[in-house]
Structure to design on (523 residues):
């Protein structure tokens, strides 16, 4: 639990893969919230956390199974508003005297559905059912369904598979919906959250200006007069973390920029120049390309790559930490989605997707404690914090770049030759995106060099070179993403430039996979 002093909203996580989107919607409304897995939410926890409101997330379980996830009964007697979503609705009905039944063909719903109102005379539905169609599009994902609502509840909306799609006990300020208002496919879902936090009495005081002040206070309390080394990758996250920590403790901070040989074209020079020219922060430029590329030689498995890079990062930081007298802390730009994808948040029930090199703590032998001031922030909040701290707009707006760098954009074995080709192709691609004025419309764009060679014809001669894939996605927070709809003209022009300007590539493809089912990066 953090030491944030704002009014808090507690999200009890029952294992939904989109629980984090609930937090995103609330943060957008300037409401401070925390996600905690149901098994950690005890009576004592609730008393200490003292939430102003509670949301029950969705989840994959069935309330009819013995031992299925439950909130503590004290949640219902605290006198605070509660919103139950999908499984959260079902558990609320079950706990409070209603009934839930196993899904059948007629009642299970997955995907787009439409809710029609039974009664709209509650504040929770302000702004709904106003477009003249008499219904609202929502996103359903449930097998089980509520068959009998709990005493004190009324029905305010129905769908073909959910006769109790929207229910409420307005006396106790308990609300429950069978659909997911947090996802993009419930277009008016944000309005429900706005109504809920308004009736709960939140004033929207969670801003990056306020976060900056509190984070500086917490960093000073944690660090005291000790020295901190910061792993500076050159990306937005670690850069914002470095500037924030420097504002808190000044020259107690030393940044270590590790050039692992897996950076984009001219990136090392740009990062070192920016920090030395704009900020008076002690900076160590650690050229460790030979070390990393040597250890990665012959390695093809993506998880093995990530683990090797993670271990080497720790070894390198240990090496330079030993040169900084009094260093007791290592600072990282770890973000909330990093934590979510690597392990279940705080031990929760969601599924691990892939490991991140900067998540999961440090080995005891390193003797350093972690400082992670951005750990509870999403990417757009970090950008807003960077703006608050005065970082250059051109830098804040940079696309995300993964800690393992080009290693995970080079499926299969990594070689210096493939990395050199990849850098050139990526530089041409990004130049094309900028020239067409598309950079700020895209969340992330990059080239992946594929582990295959293809036959081509250039100048009446046969070529046998690498194929590459272009990737560009739109996203809000990196948790879900859609491919960017480039025109055929743009793709054709870009492919021609890459093949003409980059020796070693003779075929260009475009990746049109969304997330899910794919991830944004190739590995």
């Amino acid at each position: 639990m953090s030491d944030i002093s704002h009014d808090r909203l507690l999200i009890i996580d029952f294992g939904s893969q989109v629980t984090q989107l609930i937090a995103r919607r609330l943060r957008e409304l300037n409401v401070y919230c925390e996600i905690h897995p149901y098994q950690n939410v005890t009576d004592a926890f609730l008393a200490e956390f003292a939430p102003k409101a509670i949301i029950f997330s969705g989840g994959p379980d069935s309330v009819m199974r013995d031992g299925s996830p439950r909130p503590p009964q004290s949640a219902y007697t605290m006198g605070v508003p509660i919103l139950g979503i999908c499984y959260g609705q079902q558990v609320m009905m079950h706990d409070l005297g209603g009934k839930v039944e196993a899904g059948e063909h007629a009642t299970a719903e997955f995907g787009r559905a439409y809710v029609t109102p039974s009664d709209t005379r509650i504040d929770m539905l302000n702004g709904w059912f106003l477009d003249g169609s008499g219904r609202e599009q929502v996103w359903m994902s449930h097998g089980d369904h509520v068959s009998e609502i709990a005493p004190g509840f009324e029905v305010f909306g129905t769908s073909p598979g959910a006769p109790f799609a929207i229910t409420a006990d307005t006396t106790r300020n308990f609300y429950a919906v069978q659909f997911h208002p947090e996802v993009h496919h419930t277009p008016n879902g944000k309005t429900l959250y706005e109504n809920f936090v308004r009736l709960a009495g939140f004033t929207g005081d969670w801003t990056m200006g306020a976060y900056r002040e509190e984070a500086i206070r917490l960093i000073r309390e944690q660090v005291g007069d000790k020295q901190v080394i910061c792993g500076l990758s050159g990306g937005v996250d670690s850069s914002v973390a470095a500037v924030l920590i420097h504002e808190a403790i000044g020259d107690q901070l030393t940044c270590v920029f590790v050039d692992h040989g897996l950076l984009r074209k001219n990136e090392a020079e740009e990062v070192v120049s920016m920090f030395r020219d704009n900020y008076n922060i002690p900076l160590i430029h650690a050229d460790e390309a030979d070390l990393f590329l040597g250890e990665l030689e012959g390695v093809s498995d993506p998880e093995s790559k990530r683990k090797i890079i993670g271990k080497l990062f720790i070894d390198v930081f240990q090496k330079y930490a030993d040169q900084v007298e009094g260093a007791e802390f290592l600072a990282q730009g770890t973000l909330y989605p990093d934590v979510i994808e690597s392990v279940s948040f705080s031990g929760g029930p969601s599924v691990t997707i892939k490991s991140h090199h900067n998540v999961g703590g440090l080995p005891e032998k390193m003797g350093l404690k972690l400082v992670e001031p951005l750990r509870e922030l999403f990417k757009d909040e970090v950008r807003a914090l960077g703006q608050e701290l005065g970082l250059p707009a051109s830098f804040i707006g940079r696309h995300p770049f993964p800690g393992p760098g080009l290693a995970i954009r080079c499926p299969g074995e990594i070689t210096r030759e493939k990395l050199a080709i990849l850098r050139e192709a990526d530089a041409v691609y990004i130049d094309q995106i900028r020239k067409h004025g598309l950079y700020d419309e895209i969340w992330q764009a990059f080239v992946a060099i594929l582990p295959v060679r293809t036959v081509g014809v250039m100048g009446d001669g046969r070529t046998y070179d690498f194929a590459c894939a272009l990737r560009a996605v739109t996203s809000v927070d990196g948790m879900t993403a859609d491919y960017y709809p480039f025109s055929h003209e743009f793709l054709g022009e870009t492919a021609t430039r890459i093949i003409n300007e980059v020796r070693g590539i003779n075929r260009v493809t475009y990746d049109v996979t969304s997330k899910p089912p794919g991830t944004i990066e190739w590995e």
Remarks:
- The longest strand covers residues 444-458.
- The chain has 14 helices and 20 strands.
